UniProtKB/TrEMBL annotation:
Pfam families named in the record: LRR_6
UniProt name for this protein: Nod1 protein
Swiss-Prot/TrEMBL keywords: Repeat
Gene, per the UniProt record: Nod1
Domain of life: Eukaryota
UniProt key word Repeat: yes
SUPFAM superfamilies: RNI-like
Source species of the chain: Symbiodinium pilosum
Length: 173
């Protein structure tokens, strides 16, 4: 079963829509409304105990460094999420480093998209370190983060090496 979560922020509330492909009748779509100003920590706490969600798309949700740290904590305990989409969220170096650290403890996540944040070289180096210990990430998008071309090239080489060693294919962004 493939489960996808879409979080949409509106002026008054946030809606989480869970779409489950191949789920039992009546469970194909679940919608939950969060309080007007949901905290990333609330979402991270739910994700930590998740047993079904495999894809989470949080594009442009103002997650910032604190939210990045909370999600990182959840990733260290989550065993089902394989794809996390976090572009355009204001995640800086501290949130980026926390997410990189989480990858060292997570053996399920294959795709992490952090495009259009502000992770910088410090965060980019943390992801390089994480890739030395994580063999499951095949897609990592760090572009448009204020990371130098040299570090981005090193990340790309590390992903290519992991793909060759593991016999996996990888997608390029």
């Amino acid at each position: 079963m493939c489960v996808c979560v879409i979080l949409a922020m509106t002026g008054h509330a946030s809606v989480i829509c869970v779409l489950a492909e191949g789920a039992a009748p009546g469970l194909e779509r679940k919608v939950a409304v969060l309080p007007e100003h949901p905290r990333s920590k609330d979402l991270a706490a739910a994700l930590q105990h998740n047993k079904a969600i495999t894809t989470l798309d949080l594009f442009d949700n103002g997650i910032d460094d604190e939210g990045g740290k909370a999600l990182a904590e959840a990733l260290q305990h989550n065993s089902t999420l394989i794809s996390l989409n976090l572009p355009l969220n204001g995640i800086g170096a501290e949130g980026g480093k926390a997410l990189a650290e989480a990858l060292q403890h997570n053996s399920m996540l294959c795709t992490l998209n952090l495009k259009y944040n502000d992770i910088g070289d410090e965060g980019g180096k943390a992801f390089l370190k994480a890739l030395r210990q994580n063999a499951t990430v095949t897609n990592l998008n760090l572009h448009k983060n204020g990371i130098s071309e040299e570090i981005l090239k090193q990340v790309d080489r590390a992903l290519a090496l992991l793909a060759r060693i593991g016999g996996r294919t990888r997608n390029t962004w």
